[in-house]
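[09:14] KT: can someone run the structure on this one? pasting the chain below
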Amino acid sequence: MGFDVIGMTNVAEARLAREAEIALATMAMITTRLLEVEDEPVTAKNGLRHLVSNAAAAREILPRVNRANPHDPRLAEHRSLDDALVTAKNLWPPETIEKLRQSRAVLCLIENP
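[09:31] RB: done, structure tokens below
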């Protein structure tokens, strides 16, 4: 069985979840194919059929995964910032401060420490 999977990643979501100390898991499923497989042409109808099939599988899998994982806020996954390194504001290079000022997302961190 040989194949390659090319797709979207959730790196941004993973980084944000870690910053917010939210445990995160990913379940990835193939919904479309770029090549014909066993006389099945690539069409919107076939892609939708795979998507619906994967959604049904996810509805069966997720409750079992949820039950199998502990819901304890003391777990390390929920405390990722406990040992994070944070540079004191007085040590920030002026260029970094200017870059952050230009970003609305972190403006409140600079102006209202």
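[09:33] KT: thanks! Residues 1-81 form one domain.
[09:34] RB: yep, looked fine to me
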